[in-house]
Structures are given as C-alpha cells and as structure tokens.
C-alpha cells in the first residue's frame, strides 16, 4: 500500500485541444484526489478542439501517441481524459506507470452497480463507445447510449442548456431503459456532471473522478502499469 505521507504526481492529458476544458477537468480531478496526490494537466494541441466522431478520435490517438513519445517524465501515472480513451493501449505498452482512461474507469464503475447507460453530447461517437464497451466486456451491462441532438460545441457552450439536456436524458434512460447507473460520457462535461449528480435518480458516474479513484487504487497497490 502507498504510504499516505508519500507525495505522488500524475499527469492528466486532455486529448481534446481545448485548454479551458483541461482546466475544468483538473478542478474535478483535484477535488476527487487525496492530499498526497498532485495532478498536473496537459493539452494535446494537435487534437481536434472536441472529439466528435471516429476521425476525430483517430487524430486524438495520434496526438496522444506523439505526446507519449515526446514526453520523458510522465510522473507516477497518467489519466487520459477523453471518453474513448484514445491511445491508451499504446501508452500502457510504452510507459512503466499506471495509465487509466476516464471511459474505462467510469464504465467499469457503473457496471459494478448494475445496468448502465452512457450519455453523449457527441452522437458521432456512439458507435465508438459501444465498440469500446464490447472490448471491455461490458456489453451485457450497457443498456443504452442516448445522445443529445444539438450541435455538440454549440450545446456545450451554454451551461444551462447542457445541464437541462443531460438531465432529460438521465430521466428518460432510467424510465425507458431501466438504467441503474448513468455515466456522463466526456471529460469536457465535468462541470455538468458535478451539477447533475446530486439530483440524479440513480447513481451518476462522473468520468474524471472515476479515473482518479482508479488511479489512486493502482498507486496504492503499487501497480506498474
């Protein structure tokens, strides 16, 4: 187990190129972290501003791989903070520290509760998320991936409309799909997830804090990767 007095440092990488979103993710991550864990953030400038489809995910994957090849000090661990965890396999193979993704972390946490849904503001990634859940062996637990219908960047620029749209999706998937837990699918949605969690009718899993919890567990166990 990790000595709580031993300071550890990890990197949170935003595979979107929006540095303001990185700052919001860091706020959520640091709020979930123990005192002994320092979290620094970085933004992959070569990625799309917002990953909205498979081609954007592919660009982000290349950006993350380039970042991992270029960076010499990754600290004691890395969190990938985009929901489809672009580049995570490469980083796990290359780095000798734990690498966790917000997508895997949050879906595994939700699946441990029961049948779950993943909310998306990027409908173009729904098939990608479904494939990822299948690769993680979570297909039987994933009951729905409902998505908003507005332009993602326009919707995410209006905090009140975003929260209202996600709240409607939460209540609909609980009622219609029988979801017993709900994941808000995206690192840039960290603020909205924190706002919605207290009023959700079922446990609402915030991806960034879920990844922090998974990282803390890995560091406490002394995992190498």
Strand fraction: 5-15%
Rough outline: globular
Distance between the termini: 15 Å
Uncertain regions: pLDDT < 50 for 5+ in a row?
A: none
- How does the major sheet shape up? 4 strands, parallel
Rg from C-alpha positions?
16 Å
Mean pLDDT, rounded to whole units? 91
**Helical residue percent?**
40-55%
Lateral strand order in the biggest sheet: 2-1-3-4
Instruction: Give the helices and strands as they follow along the chain.
Output: EHEHEHEHEHEHHEHEH
Give the SSE map.
Blueprint: E1 8-14, H1 19-32, E2 37-43, H2 54-70, E3 78-80, H3 88-94, E4 99-101, H4 102-113, E5 116-119, H5 126-135, E6 142-144, H6 152-156, H7 159-177, E7 181-184, H8 190-196, E8 204-205, H9 207-221
Parallel strand pairs: 1-2, 1-3, 3-4, 5-6, 5-7, 7-8
Helix pairs in contact: 1-9, 2-3, 4-9, 7-8
Can you put this structure into words, describing what you see?
With 225 residues, the chain is α/β, with parallel strands linked by helices. Helix content is 47%, strand content 15%. The relative contact order is 0.18. The mean pLDDT is 91.
